[in-house]
Amino acid sequence: MRLWLKFARSAQLAYISHLDTHRAYYRLFRRANLPLAFSQGFNPHPILSLASPMPLGYRSEADYVDLCLAEPLAMSHLLERLQRVTLQTEFSFLGARMVKADRKPLAAEVAWTDYEVQVLGQGSLAQAVQAFTGAEEVHFLKKSKSSTKLVNAKPLVRDVRVEDNRLRAVLSSSEPVFFRPDEFLALLGGLSGEEYQADYVVRKELYLRAESLMAPLD
Amino acid sequence: MIPKEIERLLPQVTKPARYIGGEINAVRKDRGADQVRVALAFPDTYEVGMSHLGLKILYKVINDLPYAAAERVFAPWVDMAAKMNAAKVKLYALESFSPIDEFDLVGFTLQYELSYTNILLMLDLSGIPLLAKDRGEQHPLIIAGGPTAYNVEPLADVLDAVVLGEGEEVVVEIIQAVQKGKADGSTRKEMLERLTGVKGVYVPSLYEPLYHEDATWRGLKRKLPHLPEIVEKRVVAELSPNYIPTAPVLPYTEIIHDRVLLEIFRGCARGCRFCQAGMTYRPVREFSTHTLVLAAQAAIRNTGYEEVSLSSLSTMDHSGIETLVRELVDKLSCEGVNISLPSLRVDSFSVQLAAEVARVRKSGITLAPEAGSQRLRDVINKQVTAEGLLASLQGAKRLGFKSVKLYFMLGLPTETKHDLDEMLGLIARAAAILPVAVSVSSFVPKPHTPFQWEPQAAMQVLEERQQYLRERLRRDRRVKFVYHDASTSFLEAVFSRGDRRLGKVLIAAYRLGCKFDAWGEHFRYDLWMEAFAEVGLDPTWYANRERHPAEQFPWEHLSPGVTREFLLAEKEKAGLAMLTLDCAAGTCVDCGVCPALAVGTVTERGRGQ
Q1: Measured between CA atoms, how close is B519 to chain A, in angstroms?
Q2: Element (H or E) spanning B202, and its range?
Q3: How far is A25 from chain B (nearest CA, A)?
Q4: Domains of chain A
Q5: Is the pLDDT of residue B362 over 70?
Q6: Which residues of B touch A197 (CB under 8 A)?
């Protein structure tokens, strides 16, 4: 039985690494006594993957886990157990859906990430966003380990607005360009001639590769 | 929520998950007006401290009290300590992020002498004066306990109070005394005097040390008439299942022992003459198989761990070990839980049992013959023979183990080149059976052991012997050889039998920049020697001097219950290479613990009869 599960983590847990997060979910499922499926082989490990890794320091209200169970479990039992083991912890369980066994890993289907960025010193942020929305093309230098190239940011931003003094943006998080919120913020700074600094970044939602924005549990 | 000023530092340091708290099973209590707040402080990194069983036990015992709350605090790594200093962020506890100096009690654990400078580092980062005499009414009481509390004089100027022995019961009495003191509006001085009424508590500032003209210890002068002359350790007569931490805090970042630590018994009466724990944790008290199986199941349910490690001073000596291991495997293996046996006794039975529990991969086993020759093993009362060791290795090979790790000590009393040659012979015979990794440490004479009168071999001698072995093992491809730095063992020897005057050296070394001394990359032998010179004390006088049998020691007012007569008799038997048998097997060896403390050996086998 294959499942996609959604959790939120409290802001306190922004500083645990991807590997630590993975282990935390694994132990959470063990405490919930889920019948986990294990890979075959010399050193069996649970068939469990996180949808999208995040830089250390980002908060997450949308952690997705792609999980295989060795035997079917009634959905009501699953929900009850996951709610029980997350009670009074820094994790909240937000929902689950069953998916077909042969579907691609969730990580391969995620294409967009919705971020909320609390910006320090953001007087002109709304104008910068307006300038970005109005422009035909906005280029920036995308740096990777091996190269630096000029990339048009317009197709990498699906939705952007300033909301209660916070920047909300849905950015591309799949090949060919993974657009990080700090890169977007630097680009906006370039448009207004100011320097914006993120106080904190929250991942609000992930969206699948599709025509309209669709979250994994939609 | 993590306070902003702390969160700002996290992106700038390694392993920030050490500093965020918020773990599963962490206990966050609402603050009551008359609540006693205790910071349990471990003077080493998060990964080391979180692996410590004693911390888990006290955390549970205190948080089970409705009128008290325990939080955890560890030594921040050097990068974080520097950032905190620069940003003027005070050291805080992981549950509430409250600064340590807001607590009523700060309880340090004393696990090893080389962690003492970290105690100073943690006090300093908390804005708490390093010396007890400089603290005021607004400061917490700084208390400490643990193995090296039995020779605590070097820390006497730093600590307000010291607790001897097992903490489960005494910690509750201390908290109650503090609660009463708070309610009465007692001063700090009154509070400490009140604490002297709690059995097992030593308040160093109420005693004045006296020395002979030759600088040896003469004794303590009590400043108040009612103070105990000798403070005796606390011991829990029968271990209650209620003390087992079945819901330990589950770390996010990987710690040293990232598994369930199941203490299966306390104490060890094998009587190895170099071993302090073997003397100070007496008598042996076992948990029953029934209790342990229930506790292991609960701990697995509460953590999601995949491994239970059976912990004790000598795990194979639990009188019901076979039944225990079988039942644990039986009850837990279906949930994908492994059982691990950390230390093995040198015999075929132990190897057999280890093979049974190692379900998938049988990588290696660890055995500790400690000394190379039969004569020297008899001197230290390590009841192991070369034949026994080799038979165990044959068995291990047959059962599928791939390698063996052997632990030895260098510089044991009466050791000669001849013993080293025999060690080499033994290693060669072992290597003919399985690949061997040899690990050699240096003997540190410990207080409250039969070897407390012995000199530590001079550092130069230890280093020569290390090289002697290295030269001869270098070309053997079946043998890997590692040895511990002799200078850290030397410093350990100084502080383990130190007196109160060493407190000044400790402060001086810290001021010179010493911290994390147990971490090779931070150990600064040169700075330590500078500190000794500055204070005008000779470290070799403490480490390398043979004591006269009649000499009084600066730890004899702190009693684990084992008598001086027993230790002297054992010292003499060591000289004659005579053995003393384990009392748990039947005959009392007259060490003095049971009558002095009104306790007795408790074994599963004994219970069944």
Answers
A1: 24
A2: strand B201-202
A3: 10
A4: 2-103 (3.30.70.580), 110-208 (3.30.70)
A5: no
A6: none
CA distance B105 to B95: 15
Give alpha helix (H) positions in B314-373.
Answer: 321-332, 348-357
Contact in structure between B130 and B116 (CB atoms under 8 Å): no
Q: What are phi and psi of B587, to 5 degrees?
A: -85, 135
Residues in chain B within 8 Å Cβ distance of A56: 11, 16
Residue B129 falls in which region: left (phi positive, over 0), alpha (psi -120 to 50) or beta: beta
Residue B448, in any domain of the structure: no
Q: In this complex, do A27 and B10 lie within 8 Å of one another by their Cβ atoms?
A: no
User: Does ipTM come in above 0.90?
Assistant: yes
Residue B554's Cβ-count burial label (10 Å; 0-12, 13-18, 19+) is: buried
Q: How many domains does one find in chain B?
A: 1
CB contact under 8 A, A11 and B2: yes
Chain A CB contacts of B19 below 8 Å: 15
Q: Do A16 and B250 touch (CB under 8 A)?
A: no
Q: Kindly list the residues of chain A whose beta carbon comes within 8 Å of any beta carbon in chain B.
A: 10-13, 15-17, 20-21, 23-24, 26-31, 33, 38, 42-43, 56-57, 89-90
Residues in chain B closer than 8 A to A13 (CB atoms): 20, 22, 252
Q: Mutating which of A7, A30, A38, A118 best tests the B interface, going by the most B Cβ atoms within 10 A?
A: A30
Identify the pLDDT of residue A199: 92
H or E stretch at A120: strand A110-120
| Residue-wise pLDDT tens digits, B523-570 | 999 999 999 999 999 999 999 999 999 999 999 999 999 999 999 999
Interchain proximity A13–B252, CB inside 8 Å: yes
3-state secondary structure of B290: helix
Enumerate chain B positions whose Cβ falls within 8 A of a Cβ in A.
1-2, 10-11, 16-17, 19-22, 24, 250, 252-254, 301-306, 336, 360
> Tokens 């055995």 belong to which residue?
B367
**Does some domain include residue B79?**
yes
Nearest to B497 by CA among B443, B568, B416: B443
Tokens 């970044």 map to which residue? Answer: A201
Closest partner residue to A15 among B10, B305, B360, by Cβ?
Answer: B10
* CA distance, residue A67 to nearest chain B CA (Å): 16
Q: Which of B2, B17, B250 sits opposite A16 (nearest CB)?
A: B17
We report the CATH number of the domain holding residue B85 as 3.40.50.2300
With respect to residue B144, please indicate whether it lies within any of the assigned structural domains: yes
The DSSP call for residue B315 is G
Task: Report which DSSP code applies to B477.
Answer: T
Q: Nearest-CA distance from A24 to chain B in Å?
A: 6
Concatenated DSSP letters of A26-57: HHHHHHTT--B-B--SSS--B-EEES----TT
What residues are paired with B199 via a beta bridge? Answer: none
C-alpha angle B3-B4-B9 in degrees, rounded to nearest 5: 105
In a domain, B225, yes or no: yes
pLDDT in tens, A7-48: 999 999 999 999 999 999 999 999 999 999 999 887 788 999
Average pLDDT over residues A186-191: 94
Q: What is the DSSP string of B502-545?
A: HHHHHHHHHHHT---TTSGGG--HHHHHHHHHHHT--HHHHHSP
Judge: A56–B24 Cβ closer than 8 Å, yes or no.
no
Tell me the per-residue pLDDT of B230-270, one tens digit each, with 9 for 90 and over: 999 999 998 999 999 999 999 999 999 999 999 999 999 99
Helix (H) or strand (E) holding A169: strand A166-174
Measured CA to CA, the distance from residue B68 to residue B64 in angstroms comes to 8
Predicted pLDDT at B609: 43
Amino acid at B3: P
Q: What are the structure tokens assigned to B254, written together?
A: 């990987």
What domain range includes position B23?
Answer: 4-232
